[in-house]
Specification:
The protein is an alpha+beta fold. The chain has a single domain, classed as Jelly Rolls, CATH 2.60.120.330. The protein contains 10 helices and 17 strands. The longest helix is centred in the middle third of the chain and has 26 residues. The chain is globular. The chain starts with about 25 loop residues before the first strand and ends in a 5-residue tail after the last strand. The structure holds 2-oxoglutaric acid and fe (ii) ion (FE2). The site of 2-oxoglutaric acid has 9 residues, from strand 14. Belongs to the iron/ascorbate-dependent oxidoreductase family. This is 2OG-Fe(II) oxygenase superfamily protein. InterPro entries: DIOX_N, IPNS-like_FE2OG_OXY, IPNS-like_sf, Iron_ascorbate_oxido_reductase.
């Protein structure tokens, strides 16, 4: 019998051959980041991307593919643990906790079918993954996981934060200072698994969705290349849903609620959803790897003082405009997570609920 901790190499499934309506997303090539000229060019490209499409690819980041493959292998090994073993690490979902495991079957999808989405979140705070307890599999690989999180900060997030600051004419380290890996924050790495549905069940899901349209709550979300198509993005301008295509060697990145608050809604929080895969990928499980970045917990989410925002007239976010108390990152996280996770049966029940004065939770279709 294999031991829990045997980690075999995960093999990616072949990409779809279907001709889907793919989103046309720009690529931010971080190999140009080394010069002032390159930085300025990328900053202009980045701000255009997050104000129009909301999603973009990051390429040229220098993270070796083996390191990413290894994370997929670890994620796969986690999901291969017996169900009762995984349940030992369940998150405190009813109270806004997300650190740990969330089993599938907690939500009714369209057509009365239960979801098959499992989530395992590993939070980093103070530079350490602080989930307790940890499965042996994760414990045995903790140093590697913590170093991987740091590498994502150093090679992808920090450059993106610098480019964002340049685009807003702020000091270059303005956002990196708020996102130090060693600070008290709730960024987290996530292994995610969407198990395949039996055909009769998939056919009943009339809207074809595994997860309705939503926005993420932090600053940037990094999605690792995922060969099973399912992610769809809502175009800010046209409102059309387009599929996100997996691009070799890339990360797909989206801007989220916190950037919208910090910039008086100049940066959009992008709406996206997860569909059933196309027909030629319906018989495989979809394994995902994501990193959710969030600034330090004590940051008050007020609009920042930027010359660009002043010139363009984006000087107040929804809290400030409505005369509400502006929450800290920790307060907002707790309330939005509670709204997301609490024990309702269907996603639709929570659409339109006020999460805190000035901010309403939405599920978009
Ligand atoms: O699975 C995906 O592609 C996206 C998942 C997602 O949007 C989320 O977990 O917030
Ligand atoms: Fe999301």
């Amino acid at each position: 019998m294999p031991h829990f901790n045997d980690i075999s190499q995960y093999s990616y499934v072949p990409e779809t051959k279907e001709n889907l309506d793919w989103a046309d997303l720009p690529s931010i090539d971080l190999s140009k980041y080394g010069t002032e000229e390159g930085k300025n060019e990328l900053a202009a490209q980045l701000i255009e991307a997050i104000r129009t499409k909301g999603f973009f690819y990051v390429i040229g980041h220098g993270i070796p593919q083996e390191r990413i493959d290894r994370q997929y292998s670890l994620g796969n090994a986690f999901y291969n643990l017996p169900g009762e073993e995984k349940l030992k690490y369940i998150a405190d979902l009813e109270n806004g906790g997300y650190t740990g495991y969330r089993p599938g079957g907690r939500r009714l999808l369209d057509g009365g079918v239960y979801d098959r989405t499992e989530v395992y979140n590993l939070r980093t705070t103070g530079g350490h993954m602080d989930n307790h307890p940890l499965p042996q599999l994760i414990q045995d690989n903790l140093e590697e996981l913590e170093a991987f999180g740091k590498e994502l900060h150093d090679k992808i997030l920090d450059p993106l934060f610098v480019l964002t600051a340049i685009a807003l004419e702020l000091p270059h380290d303005f956002f990196t200072k708020l996102h130090r890996y060693e600070s008290n924050h709730e960024s987290h790495l996530r292994y995610m698994k969407y198990s395949k549905f039996p055909k009769e069940e998939a056919d009943k899901i009339t809207d074809g969705l595994q997860s309705p349209g939503h926005t993420d709550l932090g600053t940037y979300t990094l999605l690792f290349r995922q060969p099973v198509a399912a992610l769809q993005i809502k175009d800010h301008k046209t409102g059309a849903w387009k599929w996100a295509k997996p691009l070799d060697g890339s990360f797909t990145v989206n801007s989220c609620d916190t950037f919208s608050f910090l910039t008086g809604n100049y940066i959009k929080s992008t709406i996206h959803r997860v569909s059933l895969p196309p027909k030629d990928q319906r018989d495989v499980d979809r394994l995902g790897l994501l990193y959710f970045s969030r600034p330090q917990n004590d940051l008050v989410l007020s609009t920042v003082d930027s010359p660009v925002l002043k010139r363009e007239g984006y000087t107040q976010n929804e809290f400030e405009r409505g005369g509400h108390k502006v929450p800290t990152m920790a307060e907002f996280t707790k309330l939005k997570q509670t709204w997301q996770q609490k024990g309702v049966r269907s996603y639709k029940e929570t659409d339109g609920q006020e999460i805190l004065p000035g901010f309403v939770g939405r599920r978009h279709n």
